[in-house]
């Protein structure tokens, strides 16, 4: 077989891009070499539809042990009674939950996408908004925070069957206890999607949804620092409230509905190589060094938000409790004659200086999702590289310098050189 130089040259190019730049996309991180090795292993060759020891294929005795280890470590990490580690992504995990607990046309209540929610929480362009009938809560314009009284009002009015808490760009912690009270009041099930802060939650640094939410989903590749993938968990399994029975006439447990919704409901063969990499990442996340990492992520993010505020940027809600923040660029004063900032312009200009962020809608945005008025910034990836508080003001200064000179290629090039020089001190790959 001929070596595929086209692809391997591109992989080398991407490796260089990841190495020389400052990565601030809040949903990205750098996995360890052993996580990558597990993903690139012979486990990719194996079909294993089903669950450990209940497969539809022969030869699964080794992958059974791999998947069981992933399950056991995930349970230990999150203090969960039940987990399914097979979802290929967070979207797949959420699709499986909805298939398990809803019928088409049922009502759901989620966090508004334009306020920081996620596509799979009821957006009209996503299966969740096409198959189910969504309503939304958002943040308050003044505080940038979710107001639980408003959530309750909307829940009482809409009577959803499923309430979803969790976000893809919200910098504050969640009041899962009050969400559960509201869910109980309206007879809804409660799901938390903790994809973004799951690592920080696992290590006890943020509120824990597992005692309060019926079902919890997460991706595995953000703060959790594992391979791209998803997972579904329950703090405690419970008899399904829909009366679905086993062939023997017993009420099925919720775990049975969820397992069936993952496979055969929404997926085929599990990706055992990715599940092995998840197991490695969960093992790493149980170590003391990962707790230290999470503490540093939060310190870096908090300081970064403060530095942006000091420079005159509006950080939604005024700061952050977790790893990320959302910046509304509209109120930043810019030099005379310079075109106003948008998320798109900021993202495109910063990338020329090897600083990567993503444009993001901000609450009450007047621009389209392709332009946006904001950027989302996170500290998970740079903290993996080893950056600490002393580096944060410098990064914010560099970002500000680029944005305040976004028409000046010379200044952008100077910043790029500084970025590349700075990141040389934080080698990533051996
Ligand atoms: N795209 C992910 C994020 O960036 O948060 C969510 O799916």
Give structural notes.
The two termini are about 25 Å apart. By secondary structure, the protein is of the alpha/beta class. A hairpin with a 2-residue loop joins strand 2 and strand 3 (about 55). The protein is built from 15 helices and 15 strands. It has helices spanning about 5-20, 35-40, 60-80, 90-100, 125-130, 150-160, 175-185, 200, 255-265, 270-285, 290-310, 345-350, 380-385, 390-405, 410-425, and strands at about 20-25, 50, 55, 80-85, 105-110, 135, 160-165, 190-195, 215-220, 230-235, 315, 325-330, 355, 360, 375-380. The structure holds D-serine. D-serine (DSN) binds near residues 27, 90 and 118. D-serine binds near residues 90, 118 and 168.
Write a concise synopsis of the structure shown.
The chain is an alpha/beta fold. 41% of the residues lie in helices and 13% in strands.
